[in-house]
């Protein structure tokens, strides 16, 4: 039997530990991926005054207040990217992207007092809203 030095032993165990850790990384990443039934709610806002930076900032301020509603798993506020292809819609001023665990959580969000207050306080800013809801398959 070959004698194993302490240095060789530590090197081998470190290498095996790292290999094990990185070998598990794809499994960990997979757990972060959407599961079937996840509910995605994407809202696009066209402002009444699309050139008004103040109106846009006010709408973003209002959307930020919605982030504290509990069933929301992930929320993102966006604006049109600089991409330019025929299939890209860039006429809106602000987008609101939400992820929920399921349809029921999204319905809780819709009826939540903070959401209802948002609509009451900020709906005067937009001229048009389009919503795309989808369920992960």
Automatic annotation (TrEMBL):
PROSITE patterns: S_R_A_B_BARREL, TAT. Residues 39-134 form the Stress-response A/B barrel domain. Residues 1-27 form the signal peptide. Pfam families: Dabb. Keywords: Signal. InterPro entries: Dabb, Dimeric_a/b-barrel, TAT_signal. This is Stress-response A/B barrel domain-containing protein. It comes from Pontibacter saemangeumensis.
